[in-house]
Amino acid sequence: xxxxxxxxxREQHLxxxxxxxxxxxxxxxxxxxxxxxxxxxxLGWFDRTGALVGAGLVLYRQVPRVKRYLAYLPEGPVINWFxxxxxxxxxxxxxxxxxxxxxxVKMGPPVVIRRWDAAAVKAGIQSPxxxxxxxxEATFIEPRAFEVADRxxxxxxxxxxxxGAGFGDVQPRYVFQIPLxxxxxDDVHKGFNQLWRRNIKKAEKAGVQVVRGGYDELPxxxxxxxxxxxxxxxxxxxxxxxxxxxxxxNAEDPDRMRLYFxxxxxxxxxxxxxxxxxxxxxxxxGASANHKREVRPSNAMQWRMLQDAYALKADVYDLRGIGDSxxxxxxxxxxxxxxxxxxxxxxxxxxxxxxPLNKLLHKAxxxxxxxx
Length: 372
Known about the structure:
Layout: E1 4-7, H1 10-18, H2 31-34, E2 39-46, E3 52-62, E4 69-73, H3 86-99, E5 102-107, E6 112-117, H4 118-126, E7 140-141, H5 143-155, E8 174-179, H6 185-191, H7 194-205, E9 209-213, H8 218-232, H9 239-252, E10 257-264, E11 267-277, E12 280-288, H10 297-311, E13 316-321, H11 333-340, E14 345-349, E15 353-356, H12 359-370
Parallel strand pairs: 4-5, 12-13
Antiparallel strand pairs: 1-2, 2-3, 3-4, 5-15, 6-7, 6-14, 8-13, 8-14, 9-10, 10-11, 11-12
Helix pairs in contact: 7-10
């Protein structure tokens, strides 16, 4: 296959994404507008007939005091990762990005290496010999993913092994997903563990109601989100970020982003955002109050969001990131414990890869970001 690469319009990019079963929400053109501190560009790969066969959203971040850029393709590009001629896809991309002033490229191939079903994860948590997910025998392994990793290394792409290493908006390598394709809603509900089913019933008996909100309800979301940030000790994004996110994503597709609230006695006690691209639905951000946790609003809200994802004929409901530690002393252990109760599966992606186009600047910027 002879491939050419060039900048494409937003309309071409969106039409290509819409032609696919799904793609990451971070690879739609409007995601570039969400990231207002970055400059964005849509790239397209064309075969010898002139047909568009791949696309990528690139975000450019300028380094301090120098007109050079980090080029970042979050959970992308959207290409044929299992193609034997992978270098023919990536070499023209690197050449183009270098011309654009990039000193380094970061990308996140949307390729799953392994999956563990809920039973395997639970067994791993209970096993004294399993400290991390990789210590547990996987339910599914994709051998082609290892070939992709080998090809990338041979091309000069690099990967940091330490958790959270590197720079940019590093995306989670491990996620938790609930498959919906070919299952009934009853099957999904039966897949929940006993605690989840009991908590959903408890919320129902307590009168918890889950409702959808719109743009005007984002301040109510922000209040719960900031309460959560203070409790869980992370820096919250400002209200303007979510307002921009809502406007630009829903301008691209009127049902790209949704907002949900769990209400009890007229009060919003939990909230979440949902993102939709084709057959892939993500639980994106979540928040909850410090009180009324006993009425289990978060379980009720997740069940409603799952039902809505099913009504959209989604193939997968994605609960996003988890840590890979199975030890209850780890600060992220609560995430995997909460999510495994849904009966879904943990998935390990290939992770993010860097290509230093200027090794000196790449190293200097990496050190700068690590010290921020």
